[in-house]
Amino acid sequence: MRERNILLVTILVLVLIGVGITVASLVRPLPQAASDRAVLVDQLLRVFFGVATAVFLGVEGLLVFAAVRGRLVSTPAAIGNSSPALELLWLSVPAAIVLVLSVYSIRVLLLMEAPRSDPLRIEITASQYQWEFHYPESGVTTDELRLPAGRPAVLQFRSRDVIHSFWVPVFGGKVDALPDRVTSLALTPLRTGEYEAVCAEYCGPDHAGMIASVWVEDPVGFEQWLQSEGGD
Ligand code: CUA
């Protein structure tokens, strides 16, 4: 009987892990990643989805099993009987899951915030209701963001008036533009294409129209554009 129960629990755990991995590989909570940050965030979300699904099905499954079979408490005398081994198990398993996910999250955070080597610096100024992009190395100022694919970039934000928030969903992560402080976002664009930057913090009546084009180009195309804009 005992061996059979251990076998059943083992099968249940393996099935749940399988369901978790399937969910983690199928679920796409974000648009297709176009930067190294977005790849990390996408993986993190999918792992959390997978683990949460496995835990949810495991807990609800045991609940249904107990309700239907009604055998977890076989006799009234069994009520109040404690099982140290069982208690240790249901304390240590969730603790281990939370610990592993915490370490993983911290690692992702450190990787996202790690300084990039030789980054292209771009100063971005927000105001009601537009974005202004300045390339200090070449002296170019534009109303659209262009980035070369594969080269790390550091975006530095300021605001002329109220709080705005810069968000390019395919890049992963948003960052506030504040009137009294410089904030920054480091990323390496990975995929060429045209994207959109929106303001993600309500900043006034025309907040919804505070949108800018974002282009990720191959390095040659980017240099040509910079020169056409009068850059050095
Ligand atoms: Cu700027 Cu909302």
Describe this structure in words.
The protein is α+β, with helices and mostly antiparallel strands and 232 residues long. Helix content is 43%, strand content 24%. The chain has four helices and ten strands, in the order H-H-H-E-E-E-E-E-E-E-E-E-E-H. The strands form two sheets. Strands 3-2-1-5-8 form a five-stranded mixed sheet, with no helix packed on it. Strands 4-10-9-6-7 form a five-stranded mixed sheet, covered by helices on one side. Helix 2 (36-69) runs antiparallel to helix 3 (84-113). The chain is elongated and about 85 Å long. The protein starts with a helix and ends with a helix. The relative contact order is 0.14. The structure holds dinuclear copper ion. Dinuclear copper ion (CUA) binds next to loops.
Summary tags:
single chain, 232 residues, alpha+beta, 5-stranded mixed sheet, binds dinuclear copper ion
List the helices and strands and how they pair.
Elements: H1 2-26, H2 36-69, H3 84-113, E1 120-127, E2 130-135, E3 140-142, E4 145-148, E5 153-159, E6 164-167, E7 174-177, E8 183-187, E9 193-199, E10 211-217, H4 219-228
Summarize the structure.
With 232 residues, the chain is α+β, with helices and mostly antiparallel strands. Helix content is 43%, strand content 24%.
Strand count: 10
* Mean pLDDT metric: 89
Query: Low-confidence segments, ≥5 residues, pLDDT <50?
Result: none
| Bound chemical compounds | dinuclear copper ion
Largest sheet: 5 strands, mixed
What level of helicity do the residues show? 40-55%
End-to-end separation in angstroms reads 80 Å
What would the principal axes of the Cα set say about the shape? elongated
Secondary-structure element series? HHHEEEEEEEEEEH
Approximate strand percentage: 15-25%
Structural class by helix and strand composition: alpha+beta
